[in-house]
Amino acid sequence: MADPWTLARWGLVALMLSIGVVLDLRTRRVPNRVWLPFLGLGVLFAARDLAVTPDKADLLVPYGIAAVLCGLLYLLWRLRLFGGADAKALMVAALLCPFPLVAAPGPRLPAFPPAFDALMDGTLVLMLYPLFLLVWNLAHGRARFPAAFLGLPMTLAEARNRHVWPMQRVGEDGTLRWQYWQKIGGDLDEAYLALERAGVDAVWVTPKIPFLVPLALGWVLAGTLGNLALYIVAQSVA
């Protein structure tokens, strides 16, 4: 069981991620003013660690790992391989809560900081998302493959007001075609207009899920169960 200070730090990161998720889902933007107060708290906690830790060398490993993780995330962000909000959230999480919260999920696995565990577990959640969609669609009698793995049906009017990609498009010959893999930055207004002209009332859509959502779920998993993704990998190769 983690000490109360570590639990408090974990809870602060959970609060930060919750705020970020709400803003990301509403506006698809998370301003820096969300992260900066928690970064400031991380500095205060670090100062406390220095004050109460007799052997300062004990802080080298956790804060060293946090610094390396922050550097890697910053590099991935600048290379446009990682979203800005996702990278900033994880960097603040790494500095605010650098100590392992729970024991490693396997006897031969190392204990990593929660930010790394959250990244791994969030990726696992994202990979399992298509299975959730499939179960949801089958439970509602929608057995359309492979669309059932990628999204759900929605009225055209509703889709226009949601953060989704239509999986059905009108081709140049006027026929309705499936487009399962979406391109960011396409003209969705024109696509919806073409669907409306073709007399389409409802379409299958793929929700635009920000990675901050599975990342927040990954943080919860990391704080309660540890690095499940690493445990699964280790079990599969054992």
Task: Please tag this protein with its features.
238 residues, mainly alpha, 2 domains, three-stranded antiparallel sheet, two-stranded antiparallel sheet, 10 helices, 61% helix
Structural overview:
The protein is elongated. Helix content is 61%, strand content 8%. The two termini are 27 Å apart. With 238 residues, it is mostly helical. Strand 3 and strand 4 form a beta hairpin. The strands form 2 sheets. A 3-stranded antiparallel beta sheet has the order 1-5-2. The chain has a two-stranded antiparallel sheet with strand order 3-4. It contains 10 helices and 5 strands. Helix 1 packs antiparallel against helix 4 (84-96), helix 4 (84-96) packs across helix 5 (114-139) and helix 5 crosses helix 9. The protein folds into 2 domains: 1-99, no CATH class; 130-207, no CATH class.
Describe, in short, the structure shown:
The chain is mainly α. 61% of the residues lie in helices and 8% in strands.
How are the elements arranged and paired?
Layout: H1 4-27, H2 32-52, H3 60-78, H4 84-96, H5 114-139, H6 147-150, E1 152-155, H7 156-160, E2 164-166, E3 168-170, E4 176-178, H8 188-197, E5 202-207, H9 212-224, H10 228-237
Antiparallel strand pairs: 1-5, 2-5, 3-4
Helix pairs in contact: 1-2, 1-4, 1-9, 2-4, 3-4, 4-5, 5-9
